[in-house]
Design goal:
Chain lengths: 506, 360
């Protein structure tokens, strides 16, 4: 079956999210859906899967004999029955349910009217095995890391057999190996005649796996179902951005090594299982913390911030041993900020305005006699709107109405506003488009140049090699090596991967 | 089938488009979906209906003045609940927080013969302390506010009757501090400067309005109030943004207790005595005002203006039905129905907003 979404229009209050966008899916292809943050990709996917009703255009499918049927979905269930599966950009798991229950949610195996627990676990294990993921299926989803949740979400989509599978940024928080396992499965689906739509900002992945592409710009399709073989990376970026664009190239930076490190961990152990972690960041330096999913990087950051218990070792800030008990204390006493990777649950307040989201960390500073003035807040939003290229209709828009990438910008903006000396930044460019990513990178380097110490956690190895001055590699809650980064991709990436594999082998 | 396969004109600069769409006025929801406007309309209609059925509905001494007195009490009661709804919590102990504070005030007047204002301050402190205790238990144990305040209310019922029978004077205090009767009986029209007299507004009305204005300012402008709302919106994100979450929970509950105490004071003034049954009628009205006015039970957003309208609507219905000779039982049935209808309307509003792909 060929599936066509034709001339789709979708209007939100104040925004025309889709303006005659067309998506045409042939069976047996992997189709990349590309565009900048806020271009309308997720909205198109939600229209196609019955989450939103389109304000214009129609959904069609053609049978083998070429006859056309017009489809209309009253809700997500209709789309699912029509053979359309989806992994949305925002996670839709039930935190209190187990991994197995979540995966089997749409296809619960029953026996005599009751849930067949064994069959359910079996189904979940098979789906996870296909992705080469090893997880205890009885664990509650709330105990998983962001990347593990994403894998469960994908497994859940695989549990129902769908002719069309739409993946909205499935690899956003995955590292190379996991993404590769996913793409093996996706390739197999294509060979069986399914069509797969892939939304991603990682263009390397697009060229590695996709056959055709559609590019959206401001809600319009500026390229429709074109074979990728006819395009270069630069073409595609030009199509997305509307003009030529060059990636950021950085030279090695020099760091003053004479002063005491801004943040230093010495033999730190945590309740989470970290063992004898030692590392340090100096003022003006970017230390990259790289590792595979589940290596314990974010968990270490959370322990330093006082969100989990530290059981041994010393944390020093500017040479002084400290005990941090909360993020508030870290911010006020040590000017240490933490940009969380978990945007939806921890990074933004979805039902609050952008103004409040951005200024929440600085109300203490903005307040006169305990009162905050709206003007100061709005000025702050305008400043970061420009600097980060936020696509918003105004400071009073609700954060929940923004596209995923723009929410990420809001979550970063609040820590930029906080004016910290030390920043722990966890996966800053997840779901960020190429142009903005380069702008973010420039911004992060700018912060370091201004003397801020930055601990950068990222699963994106190219990003790490672009930005970091030194890279510490973590595996299974231990530091397995550290190297000076010379910003040359081949050499450094090999060295990093060798460290991880040597550790796993031993 | 003919799907256009051309490359559309790729020359329009991105930024131009972005600003154009941003300037288009937002296509909002229909006016009746705005809870405040809807409420105001319903109030006006009901007033017209009641006053045409019973002309005494507009009689100053018989109806309007007592209505304003009741309204002042229930507005403050609603604010007491609103203070914790902001967190997505509930305070089922509003009635007994009012009761125990009223006891404290009565006892001060009786045994210490303090002036009116000093007794009030003492009562507010007691209310704040009990509220803070509730907030502290909730944040320290992580137990749901519903359960904690329900249990607290139960314990306070016993404590209040024990206090009245042992150190009080049975069921009420006899003391009448100076100024209490003036506050109860006078309206601004009793005070004239030359030929100009004030409106027939009871003296306690400005007290309630002042409380409303302060609460509104707190949540709109002050850092603490905003941080309470952020905590209600998403407690995890609040903690990770550096907000001292437990402290804010305690503060919101303390505010709730303080407002409950104020409501107890106003009711004692209206009824003429600090007695054991103060607060008994507070629980349902505490939810009616805020919820009718569009305050969410899920936290993160409050509407003080809505609470004023919500409390006014309840008061209009109560007085109107009273004048039409409905019995107390009937009255309760109708008030309960109003709440159900309001909650359903709220749901409809949400679903409608969701369909259009925006949030309410
Ligand atoms: N529920 C909503 N209410 C109002 N506006 C919305 C809503 N959802 C999306 N939008 C707006 O529609 C536009 C397109 O958003 P969409 O989420 O489709 O972008 P996207 O291409 O998926 O971007 P990203 O790469 O950041 O995920 C944005 O300007 C966004 O602000
Ligand atoms: Mg998206």
């Amino acid at each position: 079956m060929t599936f066509i979404a034709e001339q789709i229009v979708k209007v939100f209050p104040g925004v025309r999210a889709l303006d005659r966008a067309t998506l045409r899916l042939e069976p047996g292809t992997i189709h990349a859906l590309l565009g900048e943050n806020g271009a309308g990709k997720s909205t198109l996917i939600k229209v196609v899967t019955g989450v939103y009703q389109p304000d214009g255009g129609r959904l069609l499918s053609t049978a083998e004999d070429g006859s056309l049927t017009e489809l209309s979905f009253g809700g997500p269930l209709d789309a699912q029955r029509a053979g359309i599966g989806v992994v949305h950009q925002e996670r839709n798991l039930v935190p209190a349910f187990s991994v197995a229950e979540n995966i089997a949610l749409q296809a619960v195996p029953k026996r005599r009217g009751f849930v067949d627990q064994e069959a359910m676990r079996g189904l979940a294990r098979r789906c996870l095995d296909r992705l080469d993921v090893h997880l205890d299926v009885d664990r509650p989803v709330s105990s998983l890391s962001v990347a593990q949740m994403q894998l469960v979400e994908i497994a859940k989509a695989l549990a129902v057999d769908s002719k069309v599978l739409l993946l909205d940024e499935p690899t956003a928080s995955l590292t190379g190996d996991e993404a590769e396992a996913l793409y093996t499965v996706v390739g197999a689906l294509r060979d069986q005649g399914h069509s797969v739509v892939l939304v991603t900002h990682k263009l390397e992945e697009v060229f590695a796996v996709a056959d055709t592409m559609t590019v959206l710009r401001d809600g319009r399709s500026v390229a429709e179902a074109q074979p990728l073989a006819e395009h270069t990376r630069d073409d595609v970026v030009t199509l997305m951005v509307g003009r030529a664009h060059a990636d950021l190239q950085l030279d090695s930076r020099s760091v003053d090594t004479t002063t005491a490190p801004a943040l230093e961990l010495e033999n730190v152990s945590t309740a989470q299982g970290h063992h004898n972690i030692s590392l340090h960041v100096r003022r003006g330096e970017i230390l990259g913390l790289y590792g595979l999913v589940g290596a314990g990087r974010s968990e270490l950051a959370r322990a330093v911030l006082g969100l989990d218990a530290i059981t041994g070792g010393t944390v020093r800030i500017s040479g002084e041993p400290v005990r941090i008990s909360s993020v508030g204390q870290a911010l006020q006493r040590h000017r240490l900020g933490y940009v969380t990777e978990n945007r939806k649950e921890e990074g933004v307040f979805l039902d609050q305005t952008i103004a409040r989201n951005v200024s929440v960390t600085v109300w203490r500073r903005l307040a006169r006699l305990g009162l905050v003035r709206g003007n100061d807040e709005r000025a702050l939003v305008e400043q970061y709107r420009e600097q980060l290229g936020m696509r918003i209709s105004g400071p009073t828009q609700l954060a929940g109405q923004l596209s995923g990438g723009n929410q990420q910008k809001v979550s970063l903006a609040k820590w930029l506003a906080a004016d910290c000396d030390i920043l722990v930044i966890d996966e800053p460019t997840v779901g960020i488009d190429v142009r903005t990513k380069a702008a973010f990178h420039e911004l992060i380097v700018g912060l370091a140049d201004a003397g801020i110490a930055i601990l950068l956690i990222s699963s994106d190895l190219p990003e790490m090699i672009t930005l970091a001055d030194r890279i510490a590699v973590m595996s299974e809650y231990r530091i397995v090596g550290e190297l000076d980064n010379d910003h040359r991709y081949e050499r450094t990436s090999h060295a990093v991967i060798r460290m991880i594999h040597a550790e796993i082998a031993s | 089938m003919n799907v256009p396969m051309q490359q559309s004109d790729a020359t329009v600069p991105t930024d131009e488009l972005a600003t154009e769409s941003a300037q288009r006025p937002p296509r909002g929801l229909p006016f009746w979906a705005n809870p405040r406007l809807g409420l105001l309309a319903v109030i006006v209609v009901l007033v017209l209906v009641f006053s045409s059925l019973r002309s005494s509905f507009l009689n100053t001494d018989l109806t309007l003045v007592p209505m304003q007195q009741d309204l002042s009490v229930f507005l403050v009661v609603g604010l007491a609940q609103l203070a914790v709804l902001s967190l997505g919590h509930m305070n089922l102990a509003v009635p007994r927080m009012a009761a125990i504070s009223a006891f404290a005030m009565g006892w001060c007047y009786q045994h210490l013969s303090v002036p009116l204002w000093l007794g009030l301050v003492a009562g507010l402190i007691v209310g704040a302390a009990v509220g803070a205790l509730a907030g502290w238990i909730i944040s320290a144990t992580g137990v749901n506010s519903f359960v904690v305040t329900l249990a607290l209310d139960f314990a306070l019922v016993g404590l209040v009757s024990l206090l009245y029978s042992h150190i009080g004077d049975g069921v009420a205090f006899a003391a009448h501090p100076a100024g209490m009767n003036t506050l109860r009986n006078d309206t601004f029209s009793d005070y004239c400067a030359g030929n100009v007299c004030g409106p027939p507004v009871p003296l306690i009305v400005p007290i309630a309005l002042l409380a409303a204005v302060l609460v509104a300012l707190l949540f709109r402008l002050s850092r603490v109030g905003r941080e309470i709302l952020m905590t209600g919106s998403n407690a995890r994100a609040a903690r990770l943004s550096g907000i001292p979450v437990s402290r804010r929970v305690v503060q919101a509950h303390a505010l709730s207790g303080t407002l409950a105490a104020l409501a107890g004071f106003l009711l004692a003034i209206n009824s003429g005595a600090f007695s054991a049954d103060i607060g008994n009628s507070f629980l349902l009205p505490s939810f009616l005002g805020p919820v009718l006015g569009g305050t969410l039970l899920s936290g993160g957003a409050v509407s003080v203006l809505g609470t004023i309208f919500g409390a006014a609507l309840t008061e209009v219905i109560r007085t109107g039905l009273n004048l039409l000779n409905f019995s107390v039982q009937d009255l309760n049935i109708y008030i309960g129905l109003v709440l159900l209808v309001a909650l359903s309307l709220d749901r409809v509003r949400h679903v409608l907003a969701e369909r259009r792909g925006s949030r309410a």
